[in-house]
Amino acid sequence: MAGRQTDLCGLLERTMFSQHDRQQLRKIEQWFEESDPELAKALQEGAPPRRYGRMVRLAVYLLAAFLVVFGLVGMIFPLVFLGAIAAGVTACAHLLGRGRLGGP
């Protein structure tokens, strides 16, 4: 908690807040910690990770595979192309989400 508070103070000192604004923000932070420690902890930890992203990627991979197979069986090459594009885009999104391609 103290480390987090130090980080926040350092951030506030680097911003354009006045000394009065920084004092007020510290008071608000202390009030949150004293009045509702569970809320303060939840705010410090951030949002819980989203679990549905994995399911969406899996669904798009399955759709891409279906498009490729159906396109090959039916000799409908635009479907093969569309399936390959969908698989490639999903793979890139998957790798960006894991930080392997140098994304944000």
What is the topological layout?
Blueprint (H helix, E strand, L loop, with lengths): L1 H13 L4 H17 L1 H9 L6 H22 L3 H21 L7
Helix pairs in contact: 2-3, 4-5
Question: How do you describe this structure in short?
Answer:
By secondary structure, the chain is mainly alpha-helical.
Explain what this protein looks like in three dimensions:
This protein has helices at 2-14, 19-35, 37-45, 52-73, 77-97. With 104 residues, it is an all-alpha fold. The longest helix is centred in the middle third of the chain and has 22 residues, at 52-73. The radius of gyration is 24 Å and the shape is elongated. Helix 2 (19-35) packs across helix 3 and helix 4 packs antiparallel against helix 5. It contains five helices and no strands. The model has no long low-confidence stretch (mean pLDDT 78). Helices cover 79% and strands 0% of the residues.
- Poorly predicted regions are none
What structural class do you assign from the helix and strand content? mainly alpha
User: Beta-strand percentage?
Assistant: under 5%
Number of strands: 0
Subunit arrangement of the protein: single chain
Q: What gap, in angstroms, lies between the N and C termini? A: 27 Å
Please state the CA-atom Rg, rounded to the nearest Å.
24 Å
Helix content: over 70%
| Major β-sheet annotation | none
Q: How do the helices and strands follow one another from N- to C-terminus?
A: HHHHH
Q: Given the structure, what is the number of helices?
A: 5
Q: If you average the pLDDT, what whole number results? A: 78
What sort of overall outline do the alpha carbons produce when their principal axes are compared?
Answer: elongated
